[in-house]
Design a protein that fits this description.
- The structure is a single chain.
- By secondary structure, this protein is mainly α.
- The protein has 10 helices and no strands.
- The protein folds into 2 domains: about 1-140, no CATH class; about 160-250.
- The radius of gyration is 21 Å and the shape is globular.
- The relative contact order is 0.07.
C-alpha cells in the first residue's frame, strides 16, 4: 500500500469529515440564531434573505482558492488532511509554506508523495496544527484588551494600527516568498529544470500583473463585487500560466 493510499484511507476520511461536519453544524446553529435575533430586533425578512443570498453567492468564487489549495496539497498529503485544514481554520499560504518547510527539515528535497513516509506526514501534520492554533488561544485571553487598545489608538491618531500591522506583515510575507524563489533561481540549483526554478517566479509575476486588473475594475469601474474574487482569480490565472509554460518547455 502506497503512502497516498494510506492518507486517503476511509478512516482518515471519517475522522476529518467528522470534524468538518461538526463545524458545519455549528455554522448552521449560528445562522439560525442570527436569523432569530434579527427577527427579534424587528429587521425586515426580505432584507435578511437578501443578505444571506448575497453572502452565499459571494463566498462561492473566493472558495475556489481553497479548492485549489486542497488540490495542490492532495498530491503529497492526501485529500482528507488538506480538506480539513483548509475547510476549518487554515489558510492556503500558511498551509503550503509550513508543509514545505517541515518536509525540508525532515530531509525531503520537496513536498512530494514520492519521499513521504508515515513519520514525515505525522510531523508535517503536527506542525501545521500547532503553529496556527496560537492565534485562537491568545485571542481567548487577550483579544478584548487588545481590541480596546486599537480603538483608543484609532480615535487619537485617526489611523488604525491593525491596518498598518497587517500591511507590514503581508509585505514581509510576500518578500520572503519572492526571496526564496529568486534565491533558488540565482543559486543555479536545477537551472535547466523548469519546474525547479522558473515556475514560482512566473506564477508570482503573472498573478501580480492580474491583481491590478481586479483593483481597477473594483475602484475605477465601481464593480465592488469583483474585489471578492480578486485573490482566487489571480491564483487561477497564475496557475494556468504555469501549466501553459510547462507545456511549452516540454
Amino acid at each position: 500500500m502506497t503512502i497516498l493510499s494510506q492518507l486517503n484511507a476511509p478512516p482518515i476520511y471519517l475522522i476529518c469529515g467528522g470534524i468538518i461536519a461538526f463545524v458545519a453544524v455549528l455554522c448552521v446553529i449560528f445562522l439560525i440564531r442570527a436569523w432569530r435575533a434579527g427577527l427579534a430586533l424587528g429587521m425586515d425578512k426580505t432584507k435578511m434573505k437578501r443578505a444571506i443570498t448575497a453572502s452565499a453567492t459571494f463566498s462561492l468564487l473566493p472558495s475556489v482558492g481553497i479548492l485549489l489549495g486542497v488540490i495542490a496539497l492532495s498530491g503529497s498529503l492526501g485529500i482528507p488532511w488538506p480538506w480539513l485544514r483548509l475547510s476549518v481554520i487554515g489558510a492556503l499560504h500558511y498551509e503550503t509554506q509550513v508543509a514545505q518547510t517541515a518536509a525540508e527539515q525532515m530531509g525531503m528535497s520537496k513536498l512530494s508523495a514520492a519521499e513521504m513516509t508515515p513519520g514525515s506526514f505525522a510531523t508535517i501534520a503536527l506542525l501545521m496544527s500547532i503553529c496556527i492554533m496560537w492565534g485562537m488561544i491568545l485571542s481567548v485571553f487577550f483579544n478584548k484588551k487588545y481590541t480596546q487598545k486599537l480603538t483608543v489608538k484609532e480615535n487619537k491618531t485617526g489611523g488604525g494600527f491593525g491596518d498598518v500591522a497587517m500591511t507590514a506583515m503581508f509585505i514581509g510575507l510576500v518578500s520572503a516568498y519572492m526571496g526564496s524563489y529568486i534565491g533558488g533561481f540565482v543559486s543555479g540549483k536545477g537551472r535547466f529544470t523548469f519546474m525547479g526554478d522558473w515556475t514560482p517566479i512566473v506564477v508570482a509575476a503573472v498573478s501580480a500583473l492580474v491583481m491590478p486588473g481586479f483593483v481597477y475594475l473594483a475602484e475605477k469601474k465601481k464593480k465592488a463585487w469583483v474585489e471578492s474574487f480578486s485573490v482566487a482569480g489571480s491564483m487561477i490565472v497564475g496557475m494556468a500560466a504555469a501549466v501553459v509554460l510547462g507545456l511549452l518547455v516540454k
